[in-house]
Give the backbone structure.
Amino acid sequence: MTVNQSIAKAAFWMGCSLTCTLLMTVSGRETTRELGLFQVMEMRSLIGLALLAPLVWRAGGLAAMKTRRPVQHLARNVAHYAGQFAWLYAITLIPLAQVIAIEFTTPIWTALLAMIFLGERMNGWKTAAIILGLAGVTVIVRPSTAGIEPGQFVVLGAALTFGISVVLVKSLTRTESAVRIIFWMLVIQSVIGIVPALYDWRWPSAQVWPWVVVIAFAGSYSHYCMARALSHADATVVMPMDFLRVPLTALLGFLVYAEVIDIYTAAGTALILCGNLFNLGSRQLRPTAPA
C-alpha cells in the first residue's frame, strides 16, 4: 500500500466521521425539541447497540467482547455520558458554531490530563497550545461584556469531561479493540441512563423517530469511522482533518438555523485551532520508538 493510498483511505473515513458528527448535531437539536435529554441518550445507546451488532458479530460475537478492564470502561463512560449530556444540552442554548469552537478545547484538556495521569511530558508546544486554547475561549465567551451565557459554561464542562474520556480511551486502546470499546460504551451508558430516561419517558411522534435513528447511527459510527481513519494514517495526518468540523458546523448553523457567526466567535475559533495545531506539532516532533 502506498502512502497516497493510505492518506486517501484515511481522508475517506474521516469524511464519514465528519458527516456522522454533523448529522448528530442536527438530529440532537431536533430530537430534544420534543424529547428529554436522558430519553434521547438512552434511545441513542439502545438503538446504537442494534446498529453495532454486525460489527460485534464480525469481531467474534459476544465472547469477543469480554474485558479484563471493567473499572476503566465504567470510569470512561461515566465521563463520556456526562460530557454527551452537557453537549446535547449546550446545542439547545447557544449557536452551533460556539458549541463546536469551545468543544475543540478538548485536545488541550487532554494534553493537560495526559501529563497529570499518564506521565506525558509538557513542552513548549503543549504550553503554547494551552495558552492559545484558553485565550480562544476567553474571546468567545467575552466575560467583560454583557455576561457569560450558561450554555458556554455547559459546553466548556463537556469539553473537559470529553478530555477525561479521551485519556481513558487512550489507556484502554493498549488492550481493547475499537469495537469492544464502543460496545461497552453503549452497554454502560444504557444502564446509567435507564432510570432518568424512564422517569420522563414519552413516546416519540412519527416526525421525530427518523431523527432518533439518525442520532443513534451517527453517534455510534462516528467513533468507528474515526478509528478506521487512524488505522490508515498517523494521528498527525488525521486529526487536522477534524478541524473542518468548525467551519462545516458554522455553515450548517447558518443554512439550517440562520445562525450568524460574530467576529468574536471567529477570532476565538482561530486561536483554539492554532492551539490544536501546536499540540499536533509536539506529537510530530516526538521521536519514534524502534519497532
Summary: The two ends are 19 Å apart (CA to CA). Residues 287-291 have pLDDT under 50 and may be disordered. The first helix runs from residue 3 to 31. DSSP finds twelve helices and no strands in the chain.
